[in-house]
Design a protein that fits this description.
The complex is a heterodimer of chains A (about 150) and B (about 55). Chain A is mostly helical and about 150 residues long. Chain A is built from 9 helices and no strands. By secondary structure, chain B is an all-alpha fold. Chain B is flat, with a radius of gyration of 14 Å. Classes of the chains: A mainly alpha (about 150), B mainly alpha (about 55). At the A-B interface, α2, α8 and α9 of A face α1 of B.
């Protein structure tokens, strides 16, 4: 439960906090919807990125969440359970490993996103995919920190 | 340039104009509306940039 002295009406803890600024929240929801419906990105791949970032930040709220788009795309709890072992798990593809490596560098130290890492990303993804992916990772990182700081 | 910019574009985000427009709507509202004064928001933005060491 959030430590904010005042909350708004909402169906989730995030709603209760974010609806304090409804104009901002509406635009945020539009951005989030744009990320999850982007034809450039596989929802299953996005979900493992979101969950890995949530784990790195330590955001229990985001770790408990599951995006229906990812489940509909075939992501299983068995695969999610192996997320910490992504470098060696056979459940993760080469593209997913690249995304997760990018996520870890982005979250832990953005300066560790090296030219070598970018060259490998460019081998696996088109510029349009990398553009959408970078926006998605930035959104997931921001939300994990927002929800952790406000306990919402 | 780590990710090439599309022809006629200005940044890598021009590969995703619709998504970038949605982001700009969100970011624009953060700056143009709300209860916090602009100076407070700018102090937060600059401090965040320094912590991340973002030279841009």
């Amino acid at each position: 439960m959030t430590w904010l002295a005042q909350t708004a009406t909402g169906s989730t803890s995030l709603d209760e906090v974010y609806r304090l600024t409804p104009n901002v929240y509406d635009r945020f929801l539009a951005l989030e919807r744009g990320v999850w419906t982007s034809p450039a990105l596989d929802p299953s791949m996005l979900e493992v990125a979101r969950l890995r970032i949530a784990k790195l930040v330590g955001c229990s709220h985001e770790l408990e969440r599951r995006m229906p788009e990812a489940l509909a795309a075939g992501l299983t709890e068995a695969k999610i359970a192996e997320l910490a072992q992504w470098p060696s798990s056979p459940l993760y593809t080469a593209r997913e490993r690249m995304v997760l490596a990018f996520c870890e560098s982005y979250v832990i130290d953005a300066h560790s996103v090296t030219d070598a890492l970018c060259a490998r990303l460019n081998e696996q993804f088109s510029p349009a995919e990398l553009s959408a992916l970078t926006i998605a990772i930035a959104l997931f990182d921001a939300m994990a920190r927002f929800r952790t700081a406000l306990d919402a | 340039m780590r990710i090439p910019v599309p022809e006629g574009g200005m940044s890598l985000f021009d590969w995703q104009p619709e998504l970038f427009a949605t982001f700009n709507m969100f970011y624009g509202v953060l700056w143009s509306e709300g209860t916090l004064d602009q100076a407070t928001k700018e102090v937060g933005r600059i401090r965040n940039a320094r912590v991340v060491d973002c030279g841009i």
